[in-house]
Amino acid sequence: MTAPLKLSGYSVWQLMELDACTRCGECVAWCPTFAENSHELTHPLGKIARLTSWLRRRHGLRARLCGPRPIADGELAEFAAGVYSCTLCARCREVCPVHIDTRPLWMAMREQLAAAGHYPPALATLRQNVTARYNTAGEDNANRLSWSQNLPSGSAGLAGRRAEVVYFVGCVSAFYPLAYPIPQSLVQVLHKAGVDLTTLGGEEWCCGFPLMVAGLGAEATALARHNVAAVRATGAKTLVATCPSCYHTWQHDYPRLLGEPLGFAVRHATELLAGLVDSGQLKLGPYGVGAVREPPLLTYHDPCDLGRTSGIYEAPRRVLQAIPGVRFTEMRDNRALALCCGGGGDVEMGDAELTAAVARRRLAQAQETGAEVIVSACQQCKRTLTATARREKARLRVLDVTEVVWGAMQGV
């Protein structure tokens, strides 16, 4: 089977990057999943070396003179196991001495493997859920506002109206109760700050990111068209997302998929909150826990799709450090070299144990700091790190920036 080895699956630049790899191995030590599973085809050097070898077998000079040599299904299956063990965290790109843009390269590999039917079976269910029910959970999409039922006013006024800002909630925050406090907090924060806000309600469809990173992105354009039309109908000038993956998809992928500007700004929630802090619209008081509300020591975990993929490092830190009396410390690996939580790249769907192992390593770094709270800006990071902290019986809370900000607004 040779479908994933067609040269058309890679840009000219990516083919040059494959050839540019110096085989120095610098990336190997920085790969979070290879550190846990020791699968040679998980780390970047292994993937590039194997693909380059196959391309020569199929398209090199010897192949042209003597005919291409076949690649067995077993070889492809082994390769797919490594490619789909990658969380797409892009840490390898940060340390590559020749600056190979690795993440798009891994996604191109997945696209061709998926075209040949070599991908984790769980991703077939994902595709069915997203294309038929418009969310990753496979739930009735009309229930996208379930998280709002515990708000003082319920879901009243949260959808079906025109507004200056539309909040794209995302599948995880809409359908997984552990993440409900994130949209609940953001909505209350923005309402208290006087921001004119609405959501798409049941008209919000999955952004398509989970399909794109699975190598199954052919259906993403239809999702993009629907979502963009729904936002334009609200008259909103700004779309805000708490999910870094949704944010990156709207900001970078949708204009490319549609071939036109969106017509409105796209901002991550931490960018919006930082702007409100700077303008004085956000009034923050001390943030504390317990009866005496002593300020806990906070540490911040950089989500891969917000930091390395989208370049947003300082906005969440500015928001946290604007809280009066805040106590803040950094983990050993932070910003561009931050360790992945393990929850990215659809890895959890195919290998939950690998995700848990990567998360344990990040949790250990947080414990090294002595922090009492891990703050992040991603609902998937919150889910992954919370589950790990519970399994490890770690005395650490995991919160989103929006939750900390809402806590700091109480009594102000």
Topology:
Elements: H1 12-20, H2 34-37, H3 44-59, H4 61-66, H5 73-83, H6 91-95, H7 102-115, H8 122-133, E1 165-168, H9 171-175, H10 181-192, E2 197-199, H11 209-214, H12 220-234, E3 238-241, H13 244-258, E4 265-268, H14 269-279, E5 297-300, H15 314-321, E6 327-329, H16 347-350, H17 352-368, E7 373-376, H18 379-391, E8 397-400, H19 401-408
Helix pairs in contact: 10-19, 12-13, 14-15, 17-18
Rounded mean pLDDT score:
93
Given as residue ranges, the uncertain stretches (5+ residues, pLDDT < 50) are none
Query: What structural class is derived from the secondary structure elements?
Result: alpha/beta
At CATH level 2, the architecture of the largest domain is Up-down Bundle
Count of individual helical segments: 19
* Secondary structure: helix percent: 40-55%
The whole-angstrom Rg is 22 Å
Strand content bin: 5-15%
Strand order of the largest sheet: 2-1-3-4
Quote the CATH topology of the largest domain: Glutathione S-transferase Yfyf (Class Pi), Chain A, domain 2
Listing every helix as H and every strand as E from the N terminus to the C terminus, the arrangement reads: HHHHHHHHEHHEHHEHEHEHEHHEHEH
Number of strands: 8
Q: Please describe the biggest sheet, giving its number of strands, its sense, and whether it closes into a barrel.
A: 4 strands, parallel
Anisotropy-based shape: globular
Report how far apart the termini are.
64 Å
- Total of domains: 3
The first-level CATH class of the largest domain is given as Mainly Alpha
